[in-house]
Amino acid sequence: MASLPHPIQYQGSKRNLASEILRFLPNKVERLVEPFAGTAAISIAASARHISQFFWINDLNKPLVELLKLIVEKPDEIADSYTHIWYEQQSNVEHYYQVRENFNSTNDPSLFLYLLARCVKGAVRYNSLGLFNQSPDKRRKGTQPEKMRKNIEGVSRLLKGKCIFTSWDYRDVLAEVRKNDFIYIDPPYQGVCGNKDSRYYSGIQFDDFVIALEELNRKEIAFAVSYDGKRGNKTFGNELPLALNLKKIEIEVGRSSQATLLGKEEVTVESLYLSHIANSYTEDLESYINAKAKQLTFLEPNGQFSTAT
């Protein structure tokens, strides 16, 4: 897939994995729903590939959803705002802290875009009061305004007029989805990207999540879940129960840059679970394996592992 626009730097985004994940979606979807959209990387990629032309973008982080909505619906306005804030900073790191304080008072999404572009590793961090508290990256000033505008305009071209935006609890979203929808579910506290937003972490219970997936199965709604993963010998998150009748696919992300610096050979792997309905729609898995020359491990419903190479 050609390079896609990405105005929002966001740790835990599936942007770099989107083309791999989309291989396991149907070729055409009436509507793609992301209950934990983050930067909506999967929706952006799906639109570019013409998999779907209708999207429901939801995330409990309301300023993030409002920022996405501005990017899609009012690209010039948000690009102009970012340009103004970016040039105000000059070489003064205190400017970042002033913007951060203003954002925590107002939740203004245009301020949020600058913070995400300038903060360390694009990592969203909140304190116990729910206030954004990530520090600035002192080695860089954030995305250049011209490049940011190009990325904003690119996302707007792909998604404008095709989306609804909400900041609901994921269970409320799943209660409203339709049989012809495809649901891509990426809870932000699982996986191997280190994205732990405390507002989600305390609010999502494993048992509740499993019940929600059981209900999707009962309604025969197709879905895919990015959930657990591993880096070297270290695992992240709980595996989903076999009773859900999901197919687990392990996708090799690459080698950990931090481990490489330390002289270690650690490979990062993300898990993708397909519902039985979704699995019936996907392309031939053998072609995927041969094309990528990667090893995928499938967890079958009976609990036995088989390795395909």
TrEMBL record:
Its EC number is 2.1.1.72. GO terms for molecular function: S-adenosyl-L-methionine binding; sequence-specific DNA binding; site-specific DNA-methyltransferase (adenine-specific) activity. It holds the Pfam family MethyltransfD12. It comes from the Bacteria. PROSITE patterns: N6_MTASE (PS00092). It catalyses: a 2'-deoxyadenosine in DNA + S-adenosyl-L-methionine = an N(6)-methyl-2'-deoxyadenosine in DNA + S-adenosyl-L-homocysteine + H(+). SUPFAM superfamilies: S-adenosyl-L-methionine-dependent methyltransferases. PANTHER family: DNA ADENINE METHYLASE (PTHR30481:SF3). Belongs to the N(4)/N(6)-methyltransferase family. This is Site-specific DNA-methyltransferase (adenine-specific). It comes from Hassallia byssoidea VB512170.
